[in-house]
Please model this.
Amino acid sequence: MRRPAHALAASTLGIALAALGTGARAADPPAPTWASDVAPILMGHCVGCHRPGQVAPFSLLTYADAAKRSRFLARTTHARVMPPWSPDGPEAAFVDERRLGDDDVATLDRWAAGGAPPGDLSKAPAPPVAGDEGWHLGPPDVVVRMLRPYSVPAGPGDTYHVFPIPFSLAGVPADVTARARIPDTDILAVAAVEIHAGNRRSLHHADVFIDTKGAARKREAAEGGNGYDSFGTPGFVPDAYLGGRVPGMTPRFLPPGIAAGVMPLAGDLALQIHYSATGRVETDQTEVGIYFMRGPVKRIMDTLYLRSFRLDIPAGDSRFVVEDSIVVPADCILMSVFPHMHLIAREVHAGATLPDGTERPLLDISRWSFRWQDKYFYREPFILPKGTRVHCRWVFDNSEANKANPFSPPRDIRFGPNSTDEMCEFQLGLIPVNLGDESLLLDARVRKMREKIAELTPEQRGRFRWSDAFNDLSGR
Ligand code: HEC
Model:
């Protein structure tokens, strides 16, 4: 994994190389300039992240920012490391693809080789106006915050912790809740949730569940702490799942009329957070922003998961392959796919076999990056007819040659909660075509989870403390 220290060293080198380049290329046609050629590329593809307060380690807003790193920018874009975008294909399938065209890559190359000339700075495009730096989706309708700051253990080993948080919609204007209300119910349709990390160093990923039975609060009280540890499940069967965040994910709204989830007028959020151990005690108090639907709700997003817990990856094995599949139980529109794995993962390949035998590729990633995971939304969502089999193949490389391997020499790696353990999941974001088919999806989801939990050894089940959830599911 690259560290900021390398970035610094490499950018210093970049300056030296750029300076050399000036002399060597003197006879070539005039190089592209920052003002007329390079700034439009950086403004369009880079500064969303490379600006103060955003995720990237340095800003690319000004000529000086870009010029001193011109070689570095050329090299990383050439190697397709930046902008970060993992899928190989299907080609042009996804919303907001972060791919740079070959022409743009060549322009950055020639600009660096030509000594990074500024051009006429007065004619440069203005940097795009920054949105709300705090909330990517704008001010939320309601913000639910962890009741107390939590002291994240220093490690070793990561922490999975669940925080029950009673929510109140008292501050939300009545017309907003009225518009989000599903007719004849006390249920509100949620357009999106955005999770605002209280501590970016330690928050690795987070999921938001709804708990109307006080199950999470009971467990917290029984354990006498600020929340409680629980990995994999929130420790009970939640009423609903509202959304989550993983590294590299962009929060977004769904197409008009499509809700991300539902929540009652009162109850608890159960916020489950995976904290990475940083080697010292960290403090976190994360917030969840909730955005309600503003117009009529046509459908609610639903999910099915493919996954495997049979991950016993021997040290040195450079190609460990696991597969899973699921049959779609009702006609559904496939909106999005979301693969999840950890550090030594290499590839993920998913496809659908339709009932008539047609094969349709869903997602191929051959250069998995743990730091850049996203939920990929199809530009043109399509129907998976009832009976479609979705299959997924995950590939891991536990050899010394895998630069992302956290262990040198390699060790046996198994399924587990730490980033240095492994996981494999593939989530389908679906909308049932026919109203009333939601229960078929719920049944398929529960069946799959039960089948998968049965794959765990009793030791693993005990260690992950899934017995409560498992018993709960077995009872269905
Ligand atoms: C979605 C956010 C995002 C976008 C868009 C993005 N970057 Fe980055 N960039 C990052 C982050 C975060 C890092 C730190 C390294 C990492 O996490 O991969 C980074 C690192 C870099 C580095 C240092 C790489 C290294 O080896 O350390 C360069 C150079 C770079 N970006 C250039 C660009 C350029 C040029 C563009 C546009 C063509 C761009 N980035 C677009 C987020 C982004």
